[in-house]
Amino acid sequence: MNHADLKRVIRHLFVTRWHVDRAFPPDTLRATENAIQESHRAHIGQIRVAVEGALHIAALLDGMSARARAIDVFSELRVWDTEHNNGVLIYLVLADHDVEIVADRGVHARVKPPEWEAICRQMEADFALGKYQTGILRGIEQVTALLKRHFPPQQENLDELPSKPAVL
Question: How many angstroms separate the Cα of 18 from the Cα of each of 15, 29, 127?
Fold first, then answer.
């Protein structure tokens, strides 16, 4: 294990549920849920948010990246299970100070990686300043703008995925 990997493992060992609760208190989680509900009225896409403090030690020792974990969470939360293949996961892992966006194939075909990357970097910048609520709400707003462009609203916009953020 190299020095960078060891530092990452130590960082993950010291991020607890307390850190998650401090960054995403009940008010922030409610504001996030409300923003997702509002977003779902504007398009037929589906947004899901997942917040994780740290990865399990076994995943770290196997070298799992935040991106790989985000893909696992995308599957675990069944974000792929939407009628139009238009689910989007915004995944945060606090120990890595990383934001990953994973989009289902219907969205992936229309939205290019640099667009997702720009949203992630902006959110990470807000989080680095301790502005977690600002960052998550801005991220949802930016994802909403992309979904509105590619998946405009229909008469009946169904919420196929829960709006409540998953705290892992």
Answer: 8, 15, 16
